[in-house]
Write the structure tokens for this entry.
Amino acid sequence: MGTKSNLFSVVPSTIRVMSNREHLIEACNLALQGEWDASHRIAQDYSDPIANWIHAVLHKIEGDVWNSNYWYARTAGKRYEDFRDANEELKAIQNILKEMP
């Protein structure tokens, strides 16, 4: 797993994440509850690295490896192989979002 500094290496992306943090936390919550479509709708509304990471995990859950890897390529260094369990990955994303200022 990469460091937080890798995720926030681009200042404009960090600003966007800060403004949509609550929505992205909600997307993780919905995905963890099995609400894939609702979570996907939120994730695709944003284009910052963390939203793209959530988007990648959702396609991992769906079993669409190609599409998942497409979104991982837009996450500032995250990879499909970083987590075996999608729920653990979503919880890690939530923790990062909750720790943001």
Residues 1-12 have pLDDT under 50 and may be disordered. The CA atoms of residues 18 and 100 lie 7 Å apart.
